[in-house]
Design a protein that fits this description.
This protein is an alpha/beta fold and 212 residues long. 40% of the residues lie in helices and 20% in strands. The chain has a single domain, classed as 3-Layer(aba) Sandwich (Rossmann fold). The chain has seven helices and ten strands. A hairpin with a 5-residue loop joins strand 5 (76-78) and strand 6. The protein is globular.
Length: 212
C-alpha cells in the first residue's frame, strides 16, 4: 500500500471555540489509503511550535506535501493566539528543515496568502527546496475553502497513487499538483474566480502560475 504523503499542520481558528480540518483528511486517508490515520497531523500556536512541526515533517521519511491550516494575510500567517509568523520566518524554516528536499509542495489553507509575491519569495529563495505552492489570493469562507481543499487533495492523492505504479513517464510533484488543480477547477471554477485559487511553480528561473 502506498504511503500518504500529505501532512497537516494546523492552528486553532478561534479563541472561544474551534473547528478542524483533521476529519477531512481522515476521510481522505481512509478513502485513498485505507487508513484514516495514514497522514501526520500536528498543531501549532506560534512561530516556535510551527518550526518544530515543520522540522518533524521535513524529516519523517514520508511527507511530500504540507497543508498549512491557519489564518493569514498577504505576508503573514497566524492562528487564534494572534502570534504571527512572517514570510521571512517561514522561508527560513524551510531552508533550515527541508535540507533533504523531502517536502516538495506547500498548500496554504489560509486567506490571502496564496499570492504571487509570497510564492516568488518562497520558491526563489535558495535551499527552501519547494517545487510548488498553492493557495488563495482572496479571503475564503471556512466551509467553502475546506470543501475546495478536500477536492484538491483527493485529486492529488489519485495522482500520487497512479504515479506509484508507473514504471515510465512518472510525473513530477509540480505536474501532479497542476493536474489536481486543473481537475479541481473543472468541478469548482469559483475556486479561482471568487477566491483566487492558484498554483505557483519555479521553472526556467521564473515563477509561473497555473492560471494567468
Amino acid at each position: 500500500m502506498s504511503k500518504c504523503v500529505f501532512s497537516v499542520i494546523e492552528s486553532r481558528w478561534w479563541g472561544d471555540g474551534n473547528h478542524s480540518v483533521r476529519p477531512l483528511f481522515e476521510a481522505l486517508a481512509g478513502i485513498h489509503f485505507d487508513n484514516p490515520s495514514a497522514f501526520y497531523y500536528d498543531m501549532f500556536s506560534e512561530t516556535k511550535s510551527l518550526s518544530t512541526g515543520l522540522s518533524m515533517r521535513c524529516n519523517d521519511g514520508q511527507t511530500q506535501v504540507v497543508y498549512l491550516a491557519t489564518h493569514g494575510d498577504s505576508t503573514t500567517i497566524g492562528g487564534a493566539s494572534e502570534q504571527y509568523t512572517s514570510r521571512t520566518e517561514l522561508r527560513n524554516m524551510f531552508i533550515m528543515h527541508n535540507v533533504t528536499q523531502q517536502v516538495k509542495g506547500l498548500y496554504f489553507g489560509t486567506c490571502l496568502t496564496g499570492n504571487k509575491d509570497l510564492a516568488k519569495f518562497l520558491l526563489e529563495a535558495p535551499k527552501t527546496n519547494l517545487e510548488w505552492i498553492a493557495g488563495y489570493r482572496e479571503s475564503v469562507d471556512w466551509i467553502d475553502g475546506s470543501a475546495i481543499d478536500m477536492i484538491f487533495f483527493s485529486k492529488l492523492a489519485e495522482q500520487y497513487l497512479k504515479n506509484s505504479s508507473r514504471r515510465k513517464g512518472k510525473k513530477t510533484p509540480a505536474q501532479m499538483a497542476q493536474i489536481a488543480g486543473t481537475e479541481l477547477l473543472h468541478l469548482v471554477p469559483g475556486a479561482s474566480s471568487k477566491y483566487g485559487f492558484n498554483i505557483f511553480m519555479h521553472e526556467n528561473r521564473k515563477i509561473i502560475s497555473m492560471l494567468s
